[in-house]
Amino acid sequence: MSYAATINSRMRGALTSGSLTARVMRSSGLTVIGFGFSQVLRLASNLLLTRLLFPEAFGLMALVMVFMIGLHMFSDFGIGPAVMRSERGDEPAFLDTVWTVQIIRGMALFVIGCLLAAPVAAFYGEPILFWMLIVASGQLLLLGLMPTRRETANRHLSLGKLTVLEMVTQVISLVVIVGLALALQSVWALVIGTLIGTCIQVLIMSSFLPGHRNSLHWDRAAAHEVIHFGKWIFLSTIFGFFLAQGDKLILGKFLALDVFGVYNIGFFLGSFPLMLGSVVITRMLIPIYRSCPPLESRENFRKLRGMRMIATAALFVALGAVAFCGVWLVDLLYDDRYVHAGPIVVLIACIQIPLVIGLTYDHAALAAGDSKRFFFVSATKAILLIVGLLLGTQLGGLIGALIGQAVATLAAYPALVWLSVRLGVWDPLHDLGFAVVGVILAVSAIWWNWAAIVALGSV
Q: To the nearest whole number, what is the mean pLDDT of the chain?
């Protein structure tokens, strides 16, 4: 047998076996495929809708999504991580209790969303937001019915059917939203289409995803485990909201709606590599850390280092491509109303370089059940980011806000080191090597697109 045939045979064997490595490789591949498909659809939707609607519509919808994500994250008890890490994560009583908690949470969020609609609309000075937020709050009620079979699939890295169903859901949702945009020619197409898409997702997952069929049940011990684990997750996700949505929360107040809509187009394209990395790592690393604790042996640490190196290198390639080609990409895909999204893509990609370097550390705490330290790090990063955004926006407008984000990300690194050292996952060789590459990458991309970045400063 030739060398190439031997390697091919070994790779097939690794991919088809039941080992952790094989499951990680298969699941990583499926996650990348699913995420890539999702983002291609999202881009196609974006391109179609920017021609059917106006920039202000995307600004309004971004404010609605900030509100929805905020409600979701401000009430997150870490149900997904709890199922993935718990020893009882496959027991029907545990899963039914989790589902019951989820339904109660969804009902409460719907009521809270309706109550907050008027104050939010008044804060941003957009009366239409009142009715948009009430309709959009229905998503939270529907998501409470999502079956726990999705979390079980993530727990066992069995993502084949889940990925296919998610892709089918996204295609149907895209068709619905575009059809509504053609019919309504207003921002309501985005609000109603998203609500219908959520309903379709829950129905498809409930009907076709294999596994335990949930029913209402209350197991006191299971509820205590979820809530005890989730109390720090709950606090962490409050700060996680400001980390993920702080820029939109603040810029939505200070920027004109059309400029804010353009910013969100740029953010979507520029954050693609980080979103991909976050999806893969969230699904992969908690099971990996659970199976191969890095403090248990040097061999486990070396395995994790290898995975971390590969993941970061792949994301850097994607970041580099986005950073260098951002202006060209926007010019190619969008009309002149969105021209300033190009330099925003470049700067967002550069800002996220340090985030990618530390992306694998946070989830070690969740895998170890140390949600308390995870909270402290999340809080530190969120506070620094909000301060950086506020100061940057006041001093330099949109460009200042982007610089403030970059400074805040760098200032948060010591907290991440503190966490990772205590969990035995800190890898200074990985961080230093990619930091050097990241500086070169960011400086080169900014120099390459300097004229467009200077033009952005006048917005």
A: 81
Torsion of CA 345, 350, 354, 359, to 10 degrees: 30
Question: Could you tell me the sign of the dihedral formed by the alpha carbons of 401, 403, 406, 410, in that order?
Answer: negative
Weakest mean pLDDT among 4-18, 30-44, 100-114, 206-220: 4-18
Instruction: Give the list of residues 6+ apart from residue 326 with CB closer than 8 angstroms, or none.
Output: 266, 269, 270, 342, 343, 344, 345, 346, 349, 449
How far apart CA 145 and CA 99 sit, in angstroms, is 7
Average pLDDT (422-447) is 90
Neighbours of 74 (CB within 10 A): 15
Structure tokens at 124: 């941003």
Segment 125-140 mean pLDDT:
91
Which residue is listed with tokens 């490789």?
A: 25
Torsion of CA 295, 297, 303, 308, to 10 degrees: 20
Find the mean pLDDT for residues 166-175: 89
Task: Measure CA of the first residue to CA of the last residue in the chain; give whole Å.
Answer: 64
DSSP 211-223: SPPP-----HHHH
Q: Do 239 and 382 touch, CB atoms closer than 8 A?
A: yes
- CA neighbor of 62 nearest in space, from 210, 266, 325, 218: 266
Classify residue 186 as left (phi > 0), alpha (psi -120 to 50) or beta.
beta
What is the C-alpha to C-alpha distance for residues 412 and 131, in angstroms, rounded to an integer? 38
Spatial CA neighbour of 304 closest among 322, 287, 328: 287
Find tokens 């006048």 and name the residue. 458
**Vertex 85 angle, CA 220 and 379, to 5°:** 95
